Amino acid sequence: MTTHMQMRTLAIGTPQKIDTAKGKELITGICKQTMEEAFLSFDGFHQDDVADKKHHGGPDRAVCMYPHEHYAQWNDEFECTLPPAAFGENITASGMTEAEVCIGDIYTIGKTVIQVTQGRIPCSTIDQRLGYPVMKNMIKTGFTGYLCRVLVEGMVRSDDQIAVHTKDPLGVTVLEANTIYFHNPKNIEGIRRVLAIEALADDWRKKFEKRLEIALTTS
To answer: What string of DSSP letters covers 72-93?
Structure first.
């Protein structure tokens, strides 16, 4: 059965100074505003940027996506109502959970084309923005969202259709890769499955190669 994919939120934003839940100031691009349309280039959405360019952004991580389905769980768990694009994602979509999406999958969004390159590694900025310990729960569950590169540029509208263009032949889901990365760092077979993905982001490839090297020397 094919799950219907639907964009729920399109959001962009540039880094700004915010007051964290602990009363400190932080410069971050996590607070994004919902938009009706935005131009998507190979480097990401126009008028969208990140503050920490070492750990975020770049062509392999041009688009951040987060499954809409997880919002209900976090709202229940923390007894709150999270704002749109709460995790700093550009696109919130339903029918595209980490268990359904594979690294290397290619999707069309309107006239644009994107490819999933890696799972997202959550950072403490999420907790600082929201005031809840969401990060550790994202890591525990693997509900991190994921990042994509852009294969075809163009305008994206909030009512655009999302469709599968090509499924990656290896079929390694984002959830599987997340589980290996966060919870099974000595799973040599699993690490090799991830490294075999041609479309894998360079940053994640380096991280998994390091994991493999450690796993082989300690096994």
So the answer is: HHHHHHHTS-PPTTTT--SEEE
pLDDT at 57 over 80: no
Q: Are the C-beta atoms of residues 154 and 112 closer than 8 Å to each other?
A: yes
Percentage above 70 pLDDT, the chain? 89
Which candidate, 89, 120, 115, places its Cα nearest to that of 102?
A: 115
Token pair of 32 as six digits: 């994004």
pLDDT digit string, tens, across residues 118-129: 999 998 788 787
How far apart are alpha carbons 23 and 217 in whole angstroms? 45
The pair of structure tokens assigned to 127 is 């907790």
Global pTM value: 0.91
DSSP-derived secondary structure for the chain: -PPPPEEEEEEE---EEEE-TTS-EEEES---EE-SEEEEETTEETT---S-TTTS-SGGGSEEEEETHHHHHHHHHHTS-PPTTTT--SEEEES--TTT-BTT-EEEETTEEEEEEEE----THHHHHHSS-HHHHHHHHT---EEEEEEE-EEEETT--EEEEE--TT--BHHHHHHHHHH-TT-HHHHHHHHT-TT--HHHHHHHHHHHHHHHHH-
∠ CA 9-140-24, rounded to 5°: 65
Compute how many other C-beta atoms are within 10 angstroms of the C-beta atom of residue 2. Answer: 7
